[in-house]
Amino acid sequence: MKDFHMNRPLILIAEDLDSNFLFLKIVLSKKYDIIWAKNGEEAIEMFQKEHPDLILMDVKMPGMDGLEATRIIRRTSPDIPIVIQTANAFESDHIKAKEAGCNDVLTKPIKITHLINTVDKHLEHLIYNESVNNQSEGHEQRS
Predict the structure, then answer these.
(1) Cystine design at 10: which of 5, 21, 32, 96 (Cβ 3.0–4.6 Å)?
(2) Minimal CA–CA distance to 84: which of 40, 127, 35, 52?
(3) Residues in CB range of 97: below 8 A, 6 or more apart
(4) For 32, which DSSP code?
(5) 51-65 b/e with 16+ CB inside 10 Å = b?
(6) Is 3 helix (H, G, I), strand (E, B) or coil?
(7) 127-137 burial: b if 16+ Cβ within 10 Å, else e
């Protein structure tokens, strides 16, 4: 399935609320391919199956929460960027997220510019490599 997403980075959004997922999808799908998990267990399964380039992980989800799912994913993949989304703005919550293995924290309500900047920061190497590859392919075709 990953072959389908070779042109654009793939983001796994782990979010149980439809409205929150739709907001994230609308903002990010202009530049990225999106897949959706509705809880921590699904997030782990989809991570293992799809190998996304970044995970946006909600903290509070039914069943397994986002922090536990992050800890499990970190056991096999220390490198994938995981950005946690939380309604809790307390510093202690941000510390717990970092201790679980998150690279960044977005506090809800999420501002569009902050979301885009955070995701772009973690995926800029993929976007840069894609544009370089596309330019070199164009040069080869002209030669």
Answers:
(1) 5
(2) 40
(3) 59, 67, 70, 84, 86, 105
(4) S
(5) ebbbbbbbbebeebb
(6) helix
(7) eeeeeeeeeee
Token pair for 61:
């989800």
**What is the number of structural domains in the chain?**
1
CATH number at residue 32: 3.40.50.2300
Phi, psi of 54 (to 5 degrees): -160, 150
Which tokens is 68 given? 């536990």
Q: Please report, in tens digits, the pLDDT of each residue of the chain (143 residues total).
A: 444 455 799 999 999 999 999 999 999 999 999 999 999 999 999 999 999 999 999 999 999 999 999 999 999 999 999 999 999 889 999 999 999 999 999 999 999 999 999 999 999 988 666 555 555 454 444 44
- Record the pTM: 0.86
pLDDT reported for residue 6: 57
- Displacement of CA 135 from its chain's centroid (Å): 26
> In which region does residue 51 sit, left (phi positive, over 0), alpha (psi from -120 to 50) or beta (all else)?
left
* Predicted local confidence at residue 7, as pLDDT: 79
